[in-house]
Amino acid sequence: MTHTPPSAGVPQTPRVTGEVPGPRSREYLERQARRESTARSYPYRLPIAIARAQGAYVEDVDGNVFLDFLAGAGVLSLGHNHPDVIAAVTDQLGVLVHGLDFPTPVKDRFTELQLAQLPEPMRERTRIHFCGPTGANAVDAALKLCKTATGREDVIAFQGGFHGATLAAMSVTGLVSQKEPVRGRMPGVHFFPYGGSARCPVGLHPDGCNAHAAAFLEHALTDPNGGVPLPAAVIMELVQGEGGVVPADVEFVQRVRAITRELGVPLIVDEVQTGCGRTGTWFAFEQYGIEPDVVVASKALSGVGLPVAIILYDEKLDSWAPGAHTGTFRGNQLAFAAGVAALDVYAREDTLANVAERGRQLLSRLEELKKTTDWVGDVRGLGLMQGVELTDPVTGRPAGGLAKAVQAGALRRGLILEVGGRDDCVVRMLPPLNVTAADVDFAADTIAAALAEALAETEPTVQGGTRI
Ligand code: PMP
Known about the structure:
Elements: H1 23-35, H2 42-45, E1 50-54, E2 57-60, E3 65-68, H3 71-74, H4 83-93, H5 105-116, H6 120-123, E4 126-130, H7 135-150, E5 155-158, H8 167-171, H9 176-179, E6 189-192, H10 210-222, E7 233-236, E8 239-240, E9 246-247, H11 250-263, E10 267-270, E11 294-297, E12 310-314, H12 333-349, H13 351-367, H14 369-372, E13 376-382, E14 385-390, H15 400-412, E15 415-416, E16 418-420, E17 426-429, H16 437-457, E18 462-463, E19 466-467
Parallel strand pairs: 3-15, 5-6, 5-7, 7-10, 10-11
Antiparallel strand pairs: 1-2, 2-3, 4-12, 8-9, 11-12, 13-14, 14-17, 16-17, 18-19
Bound molecules: 4'-deoxy-4'-aminopyridoxal-5'-phosphate.
Protein backbone atom coordinates (compact mmCIF):
# COMPACT_ATOMS: atom_id res chain seq x y z
CA MET A 1 0.00 0.00 0.00
CA THR A 2 1.45 3.34 -0.92
CA HIS A 3 0.74 6.23 1.32
CA THR A 4 0.93 9.84 0.18
CA PRO A 5 2.08 11.96 3.11
CA PRO A 6 -0.01 15.09 3.75
CA SER A 7 3.12 17.20 3.32
CA ALA A 8 3.38 16.14 -0.33
CA GLY A 9 0.83 18.84 -1.13
CA VAL A 10 2.96 21.75 0.06
CA PRO A 11 3.47 24.08 -2.91
CA GLN A 12 7.14 24.30 -3.89
CA THR A 13 7.05 28.03 -4.42
CA PRO A 14 6.71 30.95 -2.00
CA ARG A 15 3.22 32.37 -1.57
CA VAL A 16 2.23 34.92 1.02
CA THR A 17 -1.22 36.43 0.96
CA GLY A 18 -2.13 39.03 3.50
CA GLU A 19 -0.46 39.84 6.75
CA VAL A 20 2.18 37.78 8.55
CA PRO A 21 1.21 36.50 11.04
CA GLY A 22 -2.14 35.67 9.49
CA PRO A 23 -5.25 35.34 11.67
CA ARG A 24 -4.85 31.62 12.44
CA SER A 25 -1.13 31.91 13.20
CA ARG A 26 -1.96 34.78 15.48
CA GLU A 27 -4.35 32.56 17.46
CA TYR A 28 -1.71 29.86 17.93
CA LEU A 29 0.94 32.40 18.85
CA GLU A 30 -1.34 34.01 21.40
CA ARG A 31 -2.14 30.64 22.99
CA GLN A 32 1.56 29.79 22.97
CA ALA A 33 2.40 33.07 24.67
CA ARG A 34 -0.16 32.36 27.40
CA ARG A 35 0.96 28.79 28.03
CA GLU A 36 4.66 28.46 27.17
CA SER A 37 7.71 29.88 28.84
CA THR A 38 9.03 33.29 27.91
CA ALA A 39 12.29 31.51 27.01
CA ARG A 40 10.84 30.45 23.65
CA SER A 41 12.85 32.11 20.92
CA TYR A 42 12.15 31.74 17.18
CA PRO A 43 8.43 32.72 17.19
CA TYR A 44 9.25 36.15 18.59
CA ARG A 45 10.97 37.10 15.35
CA LEU A 46 9.38 34.64 12.95
CA PRO A 47 5.75 34.87 14.03
CA ILE A 48 4.10 31.95 12.26
CA ALA A 49 2.47 28.68 13.29
CA ILE A 50 3.62 25.88 11.03
CA ALA A 51 1.08 23.48 9.54
CA ARG A 52 3.31 21.26 7.37
CA ALA A 53 6.46 21.31 5.28
CA GLN A 54 8.06 19.63 2.32
CA GLY A 55 11.52 20.05 0.81
CA ALA A 56 12.68 23.62 1.23
CA TYR A 57 9.15 24.93 1.83
CA VAL A 58 7.09 25.48 4.96
CA GLU A 59 3.35 26.15 4.96
CA ASP A 60 1.82 28.02 7.86
CA VAL A 61 -1.67 27.51 9.25
CA ASP A 62 -2.99 30.39 7.11
CA GLY A 63 -1.80 28.76 3.90
CA ASN A 64 1.22 31.02 3.42
CA VAL A 65 4.23 29.24 1.96
CA PHE A 66 7.79 30.20 2.83
CA LEU A 67 11.16 29.20 1.47
CA ASP A 68 12.97 27.90 4.53
CA PHE A 69 16.54 29.22 4.83
CA LEU A 70 16.59 28.34 8.52
CA ALA A 71 15.93 24.62 7.95
CA GLY A 72 15.48 23.71 11.59
CA ALA A 73 18.58 25.72 12.56
CA GLY A 74 20.67 23.66 10.16
CA VAL A 75 19.11 20.31 11.04
CA LEU A 76 17.23 19.65 7.80
CA SER A 77 20.14 19.01 5.47
CA LEU A 78 17.88 17.38 2.88
CA GLY A 79 14.97 19.72 3.52
CA HIS A 80 11.76 18.71 5.22
CA ASN A 81 10.50 15.13 4.86
CA HIS A 82 12.84 13.84 2.17
CA PRO A 83 10.77 10.93 0.76
CA ASP A 84 13.62 8.38 0.82
CA VAL A 85 14.45 9.23 4.40
CA ILE A 86 10.79 9.16 5.43
CA ALA A 87 10.44 5.72 3.80
CA ALA A 88 13.42 4.40 5.80
CA VAL A 89 12.00 5.85 9.03
CA THR A 90 8.56 4.42 8.29
CA ASP A 91 10.07 0.96 7.75
CA GLN A 92 12.09 1.21 10.95
CA LEU A 93 8.96 2.21 12.91
CA GLY A 94 7.66 -1.32 12.56
CA VAL A 95 10.97 -2.89 13.58
CA LEU A 96 12.40 -1.09 16.61
CA VAL A 97 12.12 2.48 17.85
CA HIS A 98 14.06 2.73 21.10
CA GLY A 99 17.16 0.73 21.90
CA LEU A 100 19.02 2.39 24.80
CA ASP A 101 22.66 1.77 23.89
CA PHE A 102 22.33 -1.86 22.83
CA PRO A 103 23.84 -2.72 19.46
CA THR A 104 21.24 -3.13 16.74
CA PRO A 105 21.66 -3.73 13.01
CA VAL A 106 20.62 -0.19 12.09
CA LYS A 107 22.84 1.38 14.75
CA ASP A 108 25.72 -0.79 13.60
CA ARG A 109 25.28 0.44 10.02
CA PHE A 110 24.92 4.06 11.15
CA THR A 111 28.15 3.75 13.18
CA GLU A 112 30.03 2.20 10.29
CA LEU A 113 28.91 4.98 7.96
CA GLN A 114 29.74 7.74 10.44
CA LEU A 115 33.27 6.42 10.93
CA ALA A 116 33.64 6.06 7.17
CA GLN A 117 33.04 9.81 6.74
CA LEU A 118 36.24 10.57 8.63
CA PRO A 119 39.49 11.16 6.77
CA GLU A 120 41.42 7.92 6.38
CA PRO A 121 44.10 8.51 9.03
CA MET A 122 41.49 9.20 11.72
CA ARG A 123 39.23 6.24 11.09
CA GLU A 124 41.25 3.56 12.81
CA ARG A 125 41.90 5.50 15.96
CA THR A 126 38.43 6.96 16.39
CA ARG A 127 35.79 5.83 18.84
CA ILE A 128 32.21 6.95 18.83
CA HIS A 129 29.97 7.69 21.78
CA PHE A 130 26.24 8.14 21.48
CA CYS A 131 25.10 10.98 23.71
CA GLY A 132 21.75 12.30 24.83
CA PRO A 133 20.27 13.52 21.54
CA THR A 134 21.20 17.20 21.53
CA GLY A 135 24.26 19.15 20.54
CA ALA A 136 24.63 20.55 24.05
CA ASN A 137 24.57 17.11 25.61
CA ALA A 138 27.34 15.99 23.27
CA VAL A 139 29.36 19.11 24.13
CA ASP A 140 28.98 18.21 27.81
CA ALA A 141 30.12 14.68 27.01
CA ALA A 142 33.18 15.97 25.16
CA LEU A 143 34.14 18.22 28.08
CA LYS A 144 33.65 15.40 30.59
CA LEU A 145 35.71 13.02 28.45
CA CYS A 146 38.63 15.43 28.22
CA LYS A 147 38.48 16.30 31.93
CA THR A 148 38.45 12.61 32.82
CA ALA A 149 41.25 11.70 30.43
CA THR A 150 43.57 14.53 31.45
CA GLY A 151 42.61 14.86 35.11
CA ARG A 152 42.60 18.63 34.54
CA GLU A 153 39.90 21.18 35.18
CA ASP A 154 40.29 24.27 33.01
CA VAL A 155 38.84 24.74 29.54
CA ILE A 156 39.71 27.26 26.84
CA ALA A 157 36.86 28.60 24.74
CA PHE A 158 36.61 31.43 22.22
CA GLN A 159 34.74 34.70 22.25
CA GLY A 160 31.76 34.59 19.92
CA GLY A 161 31.45 30.81 20.24
CA PHE A 162 28.18 28.99 20.85
CA HIS A 163 28.01 25.45 22.20
CA GLY A 164 24.53 24.99 23.65
CA ALA A 165 22.26 25.78 26.55
CA THR A 166 23.05 23.19 29.24
CA LEU A 167 24.97 24.54 32.19
CA ALA A 168 28.35 23.27 30.97
CA ALA A 169 27.80 24.04 27.27
CA MET A 170 26.56 27.50 28.18
CA SER A 171 29.62 28.01 30.35
CA VAL A 172 31.88 27.64 27.30
CA THR A 173 29.59 29.83 25.17
CA GLY A 174 30.34 33.48 24.51
CA LEU A 175 26.74 34.73 24.60
CA VAL A 176 26.71 36.78 27.80
CA SER A 177 22.95 37.45 27.91
CA GLN A 178 22.19 33.74 28.28
CA LYS A 179 24.65 33.08 31.07
CA GLU A 180 24.58 36.35 33.00
CA PRO A 181 21.38 35.60 34.98
CA VAL A 182 22.58 32.11 35.99
CA ARG A 183 24.75 31.81 39.07
CA GLY A 184 27.18 28.93 39.48
CA ARG A 185 28.46 28.11 36.03
CA MET A 186 31.13 25.51 35.26
CA PRO A 187 34.32 26.94 36.74
CA GLY A 188 37.69 27.22 35.04
CA VAL A 189 36.57 28.47 31.61
CA HIS A 190 38.89 31.00 29.94
CA PHE A 191 37.81 32.94 26.88
CA PHE A 192 40.28 33.97 24.20
CA PRO A 193 39.83 36.06 21.05
CA TYR A 194 38.76 34.02 18.03
CA GLY A 195 40.97 34.28 14.98
CA GLY A 196 38.31 34.43 12.38
CA SER A 197 37.23 37.85 11.43
CA ALA A 198 38.72 39.99 8.73
CA ARG A 199 38.75 42.61 11.44
CA CYS A 200 40.60 42.71 14.75
CA PRO A 201 38.41 41.09 17.43
CA VAL A 202 39.10 43.99 19.79
CA GLY A 203 38.91 46.68 17.12
CA LEU A 204 42.56 47.77 17.17
CA HIS A 205 44.01 46.57 13.89
CA PRO A 206 42.25 47.53 10.68
CA ASP A 207 43.40 44.40 8.82
CA GLY A 208 42.57 41.77 11.36
CA CYS A 209 45.02 39.98 13.57
CA ASN A 210 44.36 36.28 13.51
CA ALA A 211 48.04 35.51 14.01
CA HIS A 212 47.96 37.66 17.14
CA ALA A 213 44.98 35.74 18.48
CA ALA A 214 46.89 32.46 18.14
CA ALA A 215 50.06 33.96 19.59
CA PHE A 216 48.10 35.39 22.52
CA LEU A 217 46.69 31.95 23.33
CA GLU A 218 50.08 30.31 22.95
CA HIS A 219 51.65 32.88 25.22
CA ALA A 220 48.98 32.48 27.91
CA LEU A 221 49.40 28.72 27.91
CA THR A 222 53.18 28.71 28.02
CA ASP A 223 53.90 31.72 30.25
CA PRO A 224 54.50 30.50 33.84
CA ASN A 225 52.75 33.69 34.94
CA GLY A 226 50.07 33.46 32.23
CA GLY A 227 47.30 32.76 34.73
CA VAL A 228 45.86 29.68 33.01
CA PRO A 229 46.73 26.19 34.29
CA LEU A 230 47.24 23.60 31.58
CA PRO A 231 43.67 23.00 30.42
CA ALA A 232 41.68 19.79 29.95
CA ALA A 233 40.57 20.97 26.52
CA VAL A 234 40.32 23.72 23.96
CA ILE A 235 36.87 23.87 22.36
CA MET A 236 36.16 25.71 19.12
CA GLU A 237 33.83 26.03 16.17
CA LEU A 238 35.42 26.30 12.74
CA VAL A 239 32.67 28.57 11.57
CA GLN A 240 31.02 30.34 14.46
CA GLY A 241 27.36 29.98 13.56
CA GLU A 242 25.24 31.64 16.22
CA GLY A 243 28.16 34.03 16.73
CA GLY A 244 27.44 35.52 13.30
CA VAL A 245 28.78 33.11 10.65
CA VAL A 246 32.47 33.72 11.22
CA PRO A 247 34.74 31.22 9.51
CA ALA A 248 37.97 30.67 11.43
CA ASP A 249 41.20 31.70 9.77
CA VAL A 250 43.16 28.66 8.51
CA GLU A 251 46.46 29.78 9.99
CA PHE A 252 44.81 30.51 13.33
CA VAL A 253 43.29 27.04 13.48
CA GLN A 254 46.53 25.36 12.47
CA ARG A 255 48.44 27.24 15.12
CA VAL A 256 45.87 26.35 17.78
CA ARG A 257 46.20 22.72 16.70
CA ALA A 258 49.99 22.92 16.87
CA ILE A 259 50.02 24.48 20.36
CA THR A 260 47.46 22.07 21.77
CA ARG A 261 49.28 19.08 20.32
CA GLU A 262 52.61 20.31 21.66
CA LEU A 263 51.16 20.79 25.14
CA GLY A 264 49.08 17.61 25.16
CA VAL A 265 45.77 19.49 25.34
CA PRO A 266 42.84 17.77 23.58
CA LEU A 267 41.26 19.91 20.85
CA ILE A 268 37.47 19.61 20.67
CA VAL A 269 35.96 20.78 17.41
CA ASP A 270 32.25 21.53 17.72
CA GLU A 271 30.77 20.53 14.35
CA VAL A 272 27.18 20.51 15.56
CA GLN A 273 26.29 23.18 13.00
CA THR A 274 29.15 22.86 10.50
CA GLY A 275 28.99 19.08 10.25
CA CYS A 276 27.25 16.72 7.82
CA GLY A 277 28.26 18.64 4.72
CA ARG A 278 27.07 22.12 5.68
CA THR A 279 30.37 23.74 4.66
CA GLY A 280 31.02 21.58 1.58
CA THR A 281 33.02 18.80 3.21
CA TRP A 282 31.49 16.27 5.62
CA PHE A 283 33.25 18.03 8.48
CA ALA A 284 34.61 21.57 8.27
CA PHE A 285 37.92 20.56 9.89
CA GLU A 286 38.82 18.77 6.65
CA GLN A 287 39.20 22.20 5.03
CA TYR A 288 41.56 23.36 7.76
CA GLY A 289 44.18 20.64 7.37
CA ILE A 290 43.91 19.54 10.99
CA GLU A 291 42.90 16.43 12.90
CA PRO A 292 40.98 17.24 16.07
CA ASP A 293 41.02 14.95 19.11
CA VAL A 294 37.27 15.16 19.62
CA VAL A 295 34.53 16.01 17.10
CA VAL A 296 31.02 16.87 18.29
CA ALA A 297 28.19 16.27 15.82
CA SER A 298 24.42 16.36 16.02
CA LYS A 299 21.96 18.57 14.13
CA ALA A 300 21.95 17.12 10.58
CA LEU A 301 23.06 13.56 11.39
CA SER A 302 19.63 12.12 10.61
CA GLY A 303 19.01 14.52 7.70
CA VAL A 304 15.36 14.81 8.60
CA GLY A 305 15.23 16.27 12.09
CA LEU A 306 15.16 13.15 14.25
CA PRO A 307 17.40 13.84 17.22
CA VAL A 308 20.77 12.15 17.57
CA ALA A 309 24.15 13.34 18.86
CA ILE A 310 27.59 11.78 18.91
CA ILE A 311 31.16 12.50 19.80
CA LEU A 312 33.97 11.01 17.75
CA TYR A 313 37.24 10.91 19.62
CA ASP A 314 40.77 9.63 19.62
CA GLU A 315 40.89 6.31 21.43
CA LYS A 316 43.79 7.55 23.52
CA LEU A 317 41.17 9.60 25.41
CA ASP A 318 39.05 6.55 26.11
CA SER A 319 39.43 6.61 29.86
CA TRP A 320 35.73 6.44 30.65
CA ALA A 321 34.28 3.88 33.05
CA PRO A 322 31.14 2.04 31.92
CA GLY A 323 28.16 4.37 32.21
CA ALA A 324 30.32 7.52 32.43
CA HIS A 325 27.98 9.43 30.12
CA THR A 326 24.55 7.87 30.01
CA GLY A 327 21.23 9.14 28.69
CA THR A 328 17.94 7.32 28.13
CA PHE A 329 17.43 8.58 24.60
CA ARG A 330 20.76 7.53 23.14
CA GLY A 331 19.26 4.77 21.05
CA ASN A 332 16.90 6.53 18.66
CA GLN A 333 16.63 3.83 15.99
CA LEU A 334 14.50 6.07 13.77
CA ALA A 335 17.28 8.63 13.68
CA PHE A 336 19.82 5.92 12.82
CA ALA A 337 17.64 4.61 9.99
CA ALA A 338 17.17 8.16 8.75
CA GLY A 339 20.90 8.86 8.93
CA VAL A 340 21.73 5.77 6.91
CA ALA A 341 19.15 6.68 4.24
CA ALA A 342 20.29 10.31 4.23
CA LEU A 343 23.87 9.31 3.45
CA ASP A 344 22.57 7.26 0.56
CA VAL A 345 20.79 10.34 -0.78
CA TYR A 346 23.94 12.47 -0.30
CA ALA A 347 25.93 9.97 -2.39
CA ARG A 348 23.28 9.52 -5.09
CA GLU A 349 22.49 13.21 -5.49
CA ASP A 350 26.06 14.41 -4.90
CA THR A 351 24.81 16.74 -2.21
CA LEU A 352 28.28 17.99 -1.29
CA ALA A 353 28.84 19.19 -4.86
CA ASN A 354 25.55 21.06 -4.63
CA VAL A 355 26.73 22.71 -1.40
CA ALA A 356 29.84 23.97 -3.19
CA GLU A 357 27.96 25.21 -6.27
CA ARG A 358 24.99 26.76 -4.51
CA GLY A 359 27.34 28.15 -1.88
CA ARG A 360 29.33 30.00 -4.56
CA GLN A 361 26.12 31.22 -6.16
CA LEU A 362 24.71 32.49 -2.86
CA LEU A 363 27.94 34.21 -1.88
CA SER A 364 28.30 36.01 -5.22
CA ARG A 365 24.64 37.09 -5.17
CA LEU A 366 25.01 38.40 -1.62
CA GLU A 367 28.23 40.22 -2.57
CA GLU A 368 26.09 42.29 -4.97
CA LEU A 369 24.40 43.82 -1.92
CA LYS A 370 27.61 45.67 -1.12
CA LYS A 371 27.20 47.71 -4.29
CA THR A 372 23.73 48.85 -3.29
CA THR A 373 24.47 50.19 0.20
CA ASP A 374 27.33 50.82 2.60
CA TRP A 375 25.36 49.26 5.46
CA VAL A 376 26.63 45.83 4.38
CA GLY A 377 29.73 45.48 6.55
CA ASP A 378 30.65 42.00 5.43
CA VAL A 379 29.39 39.01 3.46
CA ARG A 380 30.92 35.73 4.52
CA GLY A 381 30.54 32.03 5.07
CA LEU A 382 31.56 28.59 4.00
CA GLY A 383 29.44 26.36 1.78
CA LEU A 384 25.78 26.84 2.64
CA MET A 385 26.38 28.56 5.94
CA GLN A 386 26.43 32.23 5.08
CA GLY A 387 25.74 35.60 6.57
CA VAL A 388 25.41 39.27 5.73
CA GLU A 389 26.69 41.50 8.50
CA LEU A 390 24.96 44.86 8.70
CA THR A 391 26.85 47.69 10.32
CA ASP A 392 26.35 51.42 10.60
CA PRO A 393 28.63 52.92 7.92
CA VAL A 394 29.45 55.89 10.12
CA THR A 395 29.96 54.40 13.55
CA GLY A 396 30.86 50.86 12.42
CA ARG A 397 28.52 49.57 15.10
CA PRO A 398 26.38 46.44 14.57
CA ALA A 399 23.03 47.31 13.03
CA GLY A 400 20.89 44.69 14.78
CA GLY A 401 17.66 46.63 14.27
CA LEU A 402 18.27 46.70 10.53
CA ALA A 403 19.01 42.96 10.41
CA LYS A 404 15.77 42.23 12.26
CA ALA A 405 13.89 44.49 9.85
CA VAL A 406 15.39 42.52 6.94
CA GLN A 407 14.31 39.27 8.60
CA ALA A 408 10.76 40.59 9.04
CA GLY A 409 10.63 42.00 5.48
CA ALA A 410 11.90 38.71 4.05
CA LEU A 411 9.24 36.78 5.96
CA ARG A 412 6.52 39.01 4.49
CA ARG A 413 7.94 38.15 1.07
CA GLY A 414 8.01 34.40 1.72
CA LEU A 415 11.53 33.73 3.00
CA ILE A 416 12.52 32.45 6.43
CA LEU A 417 15.90 33.73 7.61
CA GLU A 418 17.73 33.79 10.93
CA VAL A 419 19.76 36.55 12.54
CA GLY A 420 22.77 36.16 14.82
CA GLY A 421 26.10 37.60 15.87
CA ARG A 422 26.77 40.71 17.92
CA ASP A 423 23.49 42.53 18.55
CA ASP A 424 21.95 40.06 16.05
CA CYS A 425 23.35 42.17 13.20
CA VAL A 426 24.09 39.24 10.89
CA VAL A 427 21.38 37.97 8.57
CA ARG A 428 22.06 34.24 8.54
CA MET A 429 21.31 31.59 5.95
CA LEU A 430 21.23 27.83 6.54
CA PRO A 431 19.28 26.46 3.56
CA PRO A 432 18.80 22.75 2.96
CA LEU A 433 21.95 21.36 1.31
CA ASN A 434 19.97 20.23 -1.73
CA VAL A 435 18.59 23.72 -2.36
CA THR A 436 18.07 24.62 -6.01
CA ALA A 437 19.65 27.45 -8.01
CA ALA A 438 16.20 29.04 -8.46
CA ASP A 439 15.61 29.04 -4.70
CA VAL A 440 19.01 30.63 -4.07
CA ASP A 441 18.14 33.36 -6.57
CA PHE A 442 14.76 33.94 -4.94
CA ALA A 443 16.44 34.23 -1.54
CA ALA A 444 19.06 36.69 -2.80
CA ASP A 445 16.42 38.82 -4.57
CA THR A 446 14.23 38.79 -1.47
CA ILE A 447 17.06 39.81 0.85
CA ALA A 448 17.93 42.67 -1.52
CA ALA A 449 14.32 43.86 -1.58
CA ALA A 450 13.89 43.53 2.20
CA LEU A 451 17.15 45.38 2.80
CA ALA A 452 16.21 48.22 0.44
CA GLU A 453 12.84 48.54 2.17
CA ALA A 454 14.37 48.44 5.64
CA LEU A 455 16.99 51.04 4.71
CA ALA A 456 14.33 53.35 3.33
CA GLU A 457 12.68 53.20 6.75
CA THR A 458 15.87 53.38 8.82
CA GLU A 459 16.21 56.55 10.80
CA PRO A 460 19.39 58.13 9.44
CA THR A 461 22.31 58.04 11.84
CA VAL A 462 22.88 61.27 13.64
CA GLN A 463 26.52 61.90 14.30
CA GLY A 464 28.22 65.06 15.40
CA GLY A 465 25.03 66.99 14.80
CA THR A 466 25.06 66.06 11.10
CA ARG A 467 22.28 64.02 9.62
CA ILE A 468 23.78 61.40 7.39
N1 PMP B 1 27.07 23.71 19.15
C1 PMP B 1 26.81 24.50 18.10
C2 PMP B 1 27.94 24.94 17.24
C3 PMP B 1 25.51 24.90 17.82
O1 PMP B 1 25.27 25.71 16.77
C4 PMP B 1 24.47 24.45 18.64
C5 PMP B 1 23.01 24.82 18.39
N2 PMP B 1 22.79 25.94 17.65
C6 PMP B 1 24.79 23.62 19.73
C7 PMP B 1 26.08 23.26 19.94
C8 PMP B 1 23.71 23.11 20.66
O2 PMP B 1 22.91 22.16 20.04
P1 PMP B 1 21.48 21.81 20.67
O3 PMP B 1 20.63 23.02 20.50
O4 PMP B 1 21.01 20.63 19.88
O5 PMP B 1 21.72 21.48 22.09
